[in-house]
Design goal:
Translation initiation factor IF-2, 6-stranded mixed beta sheet, alpha+beta, binds magnesium ion, single chain, binds guanosine-5'-triphosphate, 368 residues, 6-stranded antiparallel β-barrel
Length: 368
């Protein structure tokens, strides 16, 4: 509310009403015990009593889960979440595969690798989470729902092809999301490779390499010949450290859906990147308009895990329905999960209805 009644205000301050009325008078405001005063006036008077007031939160939105505010001292360093972006065929998948092979497959041999849209690499004792989804989806679908997933964007540009339309698109996505870019100039093993030309082209988009006096890290790599991978990983870790990426692991989990599907045998399956808190098997969750209890969790190697901390991607089972990429996961109690999920479903249905109505109308016009 924008206003408060003098009597209630005095009570909140823990002061006599008379004292408050006197202070108001001194400020040139004639007010009675039952009069309403506005927030600005109230905060000025409160100041005089040495009290800082904050405005009450707006009425609760039944489709929202109350946000937990983490005190600075609860925050711990978490691994960076990195998205690989770039033009078609410039070598995004090859680069991810190369990084993965040199770093994780050794102790993964024989394990069945599951596709969960993200995976972790351990390098120099530190973890890095790579988003395995096409870079554009990671940005568009997720950001459309207000979820920021990526900490660092690795822009892959083929040294023999140079800057192309999707290279520019990727730069724009990363920039508008405020995500720092590391450039990987790929395919330097090729005869026709011209890394300098790529660097030259990138200056037109405000990306100037450190070598040339700018502040963008550019690493020449070859996914095929496994050149420059250490350099790239080291730079990712340095940038992560500078960015001071932190989260509170000791609170109810919050995360974002990377991808989800209906599995014949297992029911709804959602790959989720945990962003805050720790998710445990048995937790009651709400994920977009879906809810349930975490029945089981798998990491990207298909191994069962009991908990997942910030920046960890996991596959979760136990939801009542299939959520969408970008939907937010929250841990809450069962009653809240049920009722909020229901409200969200209603909202989703009614907006779908609107869309349909509009389409029908347009169709009608088109037929006339
Ligand atoms: P999309 O997913 O289709 O956008 O492509 P991508 O960016 O994932 O590229 P991908 O890894 O599929 O590689 C495209 C082609 O480039 C393939 O034929 C790769 O073998 C080749 N390629 C990738 N990296 C290198 C490299 O370092 N050197 C050479 N010579 N070829 C490469
Ligand atoms: Mg690919």
């Amino acid at each position: 509310p924008e206003t408060i009644i003098v009597k209630d205000f005095a009570e909140k301050l823990g002061r006599e009403v008379g004292e408050v009325i006197k202070k108001l008078l001194m400020g040139g405001i004639m007010a009675t015990i039952n009069q309403e005063i506005d927030f600005e006036t109230a905060s000025l008077i409160a100041d005089e009593f040495g009290v800082t007031v904050t405005q009450e939160a707006p009425p609760e939105d039944p489709t929202e889960i109350e946000e937990i505010v983490d005190a600075p001292e609860t925050l711990k360093v978490r691994p960076p979440v990195v998205t690989i972006m770039g033009h078609v065929d410039h070598g995004k998948t090859s680069l991810l595969d190369a990084i993965r092979q040199t770093n994780v497959t050794s102790h993964e041999a024989g394990g069945i690798t599951q596709h969960i849209g993200a995976y972790q690499v351990r390098y120099n004792g530190k973890k890095i989470t790579f988003m395995d989804t096409p870079g554009h989806e990671a940005f568009t679908a997720m950001r459309a729902r207000g979820a920021q997933v990526t900490d660092i964007a690795v822009l892959v540009v083929a040294a023999d092809d140079g800057v192309m339309p999707q290279t520019v698109e990727s730069i724009n996505h990363a920039k508008s999301a405020g995500v720092p870019i590391i450039v990987a100039i790929n395919k330097i093993d090729k005869e026709s490779a011209n890394p300098e030309h790529v660097m030259q082209q990138l200056t037109e988009y405000g990306l100037i390499s450190e070598e040339w006096g700018g502040d963008t890290i550019m690493v020449p790599v070859s996914a095929h010949k496994k050149i420059g991978l250490d350099d790239l990983l080291e730079n990712i870790l340095v940038l992560a450290e500078v960015s001071e990426l932190k989260a509170n692991p000791n609170r109810p989990a919050q995360g974002v859906v990377i991808e989800a599907k209906l599995d014949k045998g297992r029911g709804p399956v959602a790959s989720v990147l945990i962003q805050k808190g720790t998710l445990h098997v048995g937790d009651t969750i709400i994920v977009g308009p879906c809810f349930g209890k975490v029945r089981a969790m798998n990491n990207e190697r298909g191994e069962r895990v009991k908990k997942a901390e910030p920046s960890i991607p996991v596959e979760i089972l136990g939801l009542n329905d299939v959520p969408e990429a970008g939907d937010i996961l929250d841990v809450t109690d069962e009653k809240t999960a049920r009722s909020v999920a229901e409200k969200r479903m209603e909202k989703k249905r009614s907006s779908a209805l609107h869309v349909n109505a509009k389409v029908t109308l347009d169709d009608l016009f088109n037929q006339i």
